[in-house]
Amino acid sequence: MTTARGHDEQHRLTAVRGLAALSLDAVSSVAYGPEAILVVLVAAGAAGLHYSLPITGAIIILLGALVVSYRQVVAASPSSGGAYAVAKAHLGTMASLIAAGSLIVDYVLNAAVGVSAGVAALTSAGGAQRPGP
Question: Distance (Å, rounded) from C-alpha 121 to C-alpha 90?
Answer without folding.
Answer: 43
